[in-house]
């Protein structure tokens, strides 16, 4: 068995273990919203609801019928306030390290009682994170009941993140953007560099950014589906083009969803609403309907 096959088997087992653990922990005690269509789970990156606080974001997901969420850290941390404040970075670090884990348990309970499963916590590790701050992300995720962590991190921090991920037994999906820059995730080679020797480092593939950067998400998912812990669904135009409404750009959203469906790839597909639209719930409803139609056609 070659190294890549061992890696894929390991990642598959980790994801399966996470699901089993969640079930044994009583996640099904409340009636859960079903947003899985023909085997493909359509969820939301809560960043889509960045115009409102967490409780209102949860209400929006319930209204639409979205039963799976990747939780943006901005909904649970004072990110904007920290950026504006004097010594804001230090204050944010203190918030992370000093906030009782019971607060994050309460957040997990909110989702659970709303019938929404947390498929991931988005907690973006960067080079200025201390080892304690890295570890805290895993503690927060576990307290909330999230299965994995997604991160818009740097390639150079992957080794330290992997060490912590190994201790906590949780995969980390690195998220790509479209701008190809040193030490950032944008290309298949960037993902490969981070994964080298780091068995707990996986992929959170943003298919819209991937297209804008000049790459084919359908081909990447075919080749690396066992390493992908979550997708971000958005429609962008190629050549660093803008975000547009689903179906108006160059991103093969339908083709990717059909690929997941037909091959039974167990990868949450999270809508990330970023184009200029009207009311957030209205636009997310449109995106959700687009995905559902693609999977049921």
Protein architecture, described:
With 297 residues, the chain is α/β, with parallel strands linked by helices. The protein has helices at residues 3-24, 54-64, 79-84, 88-98, 101-114, 131-144, 158-168, 188-195, 207-212, 217-224, 253-263, 280-296, and strands at residues 36-37, 40-45, 68-72, 117-122, 148-151, 172-175, 201-206, 228-233, 235-236, 243-244, 269-271. The strands form 2 sheets. Strands 2-3-4-5-6-7-8-11 form an 8-stranded parallel barrel, surrounded by 8 helices. Strand 5, helix 7 and strand 6 form a beta-alpha-beta unit. Helix 2 packs parallel to helix 12 (280-296), helix 5 (101-114) packs parallel to helix 6 and helix 11 crosses helix 12. The radius of gyration is 18 Å and the shape is globular. Mean pLDDT is 92; it is low at 17-28.
Write the layout of secondary structure elements.
Layout: H1 3-24, E1 36-37, E2 40-45, H2 54-64, E3 68-72, H3 79-84, H4 88-98, H5 101-114, E4 117-122, H6 131-144, E5 148-151, H7 158-168, E6 172-175, H8 188-195, E7 201-206, H9 207-212, H10 217-224, E8 228-233, E9 235-236, E10 243-244, H11 253-263, E11 269-271, H12 280-296
Parallel strand pairs: 2-3, 2-11, 3-4, 4-5, 5-6, 6-7, 7-8, 8-11
Antiparallel strand pairs: 1-2, 9-10
Helix pairs in contact: 2-12, 5-6, 6-7, 11-12
């Amino acid at each position: 068995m070659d190294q890549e096959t061992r890696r894929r088997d390991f990642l598959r087992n980790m994801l399966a273990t996470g699901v089993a653990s969640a079930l044994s922990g009583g996640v099904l005690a409340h009636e859960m919203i079903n947003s899985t269509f023909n085997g493909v789970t359509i969820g939301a990156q809560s960043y889509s609801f960045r115009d409102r606080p967490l409780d209102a974001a949860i209400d929006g997901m319930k209204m639409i019928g979205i039963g799976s969420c990747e939780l943006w850290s901005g909904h649970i941390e004072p990110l904007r306030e920290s950026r504006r404040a004097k010594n804001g970075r230090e204050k944010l670090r203190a918030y992370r390290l000093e906030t009782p884990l019971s607060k994050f348990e309460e957040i997990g309970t909110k989702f659970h009682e709303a019938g929404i499963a947390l498929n991931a916590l988005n907690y973006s590790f960067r080079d200025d994170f201390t080892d304690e701050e890295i570890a805290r992300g895993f503690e927060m995720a576990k307290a909330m009941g999230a299965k994995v962590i997604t991160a818009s991190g740097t390639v150079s921090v992957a080794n330290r993140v992997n060490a912590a991920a190994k201790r906590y037994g949780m995969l980390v999906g690195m998220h790509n953007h479209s701008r190809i820059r040193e030490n950032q995730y944008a290309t298949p080679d960037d993902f490969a560099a981070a994964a080298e020797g780091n068995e707990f480092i996986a992929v959170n593939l943003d298919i819209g950014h991937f297209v804008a950067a000049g790459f084919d998400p359908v081909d990447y998912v075919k080749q690396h589906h066992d390493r992908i812990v979550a997708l971000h669904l958005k429609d962008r135009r190629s050549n660093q083009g803008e975000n547009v409404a689903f179906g108006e750009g160059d991103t093969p959203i339908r083709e990717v969803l059909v690929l997941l469906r037909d091959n039974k790839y167990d990868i949450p597909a999270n809508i990330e609403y970023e184009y200029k639209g009207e009311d957030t719930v209205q636009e997310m409803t449109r995106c959700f309907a687009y995905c559902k139609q693609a999977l049921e056609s």
